[in-house]
């Protein structure tokens, strides 16, 4: 089975860069969106809101508009030669419903640019890796409370976008679940989405040779157990080089979650770093996916071989 490979890096942003904000998943509160746009404008970016970002599906209120409209917004922004980056407004649920509506050939022809998001956007990270071969950024989103209210999250995302060579080493807030060093290419995201993507045309066949980043939110411990067990039974974790564990907000007492993670992942025989500060948490770090790196679980560091963006 082919190991996870390094992906093509988009260009970094410069002052004045045109940035599209899209909503591929859940509905977006307008006041939070406006606050996020103000932050982006403060970075000398030129953000604009895609036409259907503030829509709400007439029948399924957990979706930001219809599948076709959400897909059209993303594709139009990506294929617009004037757009340098696409930042998702929020997660929730909905990417998997609209992924088949995207014209991946047209998006590939549009060339590389920056994609930012996390949570439900995990499904796009995987799809962009498989279909477009592009590095993407697992980071805070434009209308996210964690972005609007966190100077650290803003500072780290801004540095990754404008001066990625200054944030080549990421530091964990925790300790090693399993100590050791490992090399590989970064990938991952929200555990539930990775499990839900298995068997689709947008998922990698395995995480072999990868440094796999995992996190989740609002899942009871037995559900986390189910997702991890599914990945194990499917062989998706065979040959993984190392694991970085982010936040597990609202997933039950951490002692119980930690015991589960040790039970399901400790037997893989690879380094596992916990509480790495990415995902659904305050002050979340931005983690590039598709970049070769070295994990030192004991030291709590992830060092990228090269900047996330060119």
UniProtKB/TrEMBL annotation:
InterPro entries: Carboxypeptidase_A_C_sf, Class_I_gatase-like, LdcA_N, Peptidase_S66_N, Peptidase_S66C, S66_fam. It holds the Pfam family Peptidase_S66. The keyword Protease applies. Gene3D superfamilies: Class I glutamine amidotransferase-like, LD-carboxypeptidase A C-terminal domain-like. The keyword DNA repair does not apply. Residues 183-295 form the LD-carboxypeptidase C-terminal domain. Keywords: Carboxypeptidase, Hydrolase, Protease, Serine protease. Residues 19-139 form the LD-carboxypeptidase N-terminal domain. PANTHER family: MURAMOYLTETRAPEPTIDE CARBOXYPEPTIDASE, MUREIN TETRAPEPTIDE CARBOXYPEPTIDASE. Belongs to the peptidase S66 family. This is LD-carboxypeptidase. It comes from Streptomyces edwardsiae.
């Amino acid at each position: 089975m082919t190991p996870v490979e390094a992906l093509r890096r988009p260009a970094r942003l410069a002052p004045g860069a045109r940035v599209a904000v899209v909503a591929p998943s859940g509905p977006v509160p307008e006041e939070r969106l406006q606050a996020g746009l103000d932050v982006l404008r403060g970075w000398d970016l030129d953000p604009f809101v895609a036409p259907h970002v503030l829509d709400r599906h007439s029948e399924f209120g957990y979706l930001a508009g219809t599948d076709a409209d959400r897909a059209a917004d993303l594709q139009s922004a990506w294929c617009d030669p004037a757009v340098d980056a696409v930042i998702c407004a929020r997660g929730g649920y909905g990417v998997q419903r609209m992924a088949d509506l995207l014209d991946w050939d047209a998006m590939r022809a549009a060339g590389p640019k920056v994609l930012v998001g996390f949570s439900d956007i995990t499904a796009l990270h995987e799809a962009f890796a498989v279909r477009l071969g592009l590095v993407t950024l697992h980071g805070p989103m434009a209308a996210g409370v964690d972005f609007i209210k966190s100077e650290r999250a803003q500072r780290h995302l801004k540095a990754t976008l404008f001066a990625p060579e200054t944030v080549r080493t990421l530091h964990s807030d925790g300790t090693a679940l399993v100590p050791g060093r490992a090399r590989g290419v970064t990938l991952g995201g929200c555990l539930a989405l990775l499990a839900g993507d298995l068997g689709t045309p947008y998922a990698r066949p395995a995480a072999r040779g990868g440094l796999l980043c995992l996190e989740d939110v609002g899942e009871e411990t037995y559900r986390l157990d189910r997702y991890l067990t599914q990945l194990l039974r499917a062989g998706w974790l065979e040959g993984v080089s190392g694991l970085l564990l982010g936040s597990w907000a609202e997933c039950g007492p951490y002692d119980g979650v930690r015991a589960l993670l040790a039970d399901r992942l400790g037997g893989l025989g690879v380094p596992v770093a916990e509480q790495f500060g990415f995902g659904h948490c305050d002050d979340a770090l931005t983690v590039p996916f598709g970049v070769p790196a070295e994990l030192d679980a004991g030291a709590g560091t992830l060092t990228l071989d090269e900047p996330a963006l060119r």
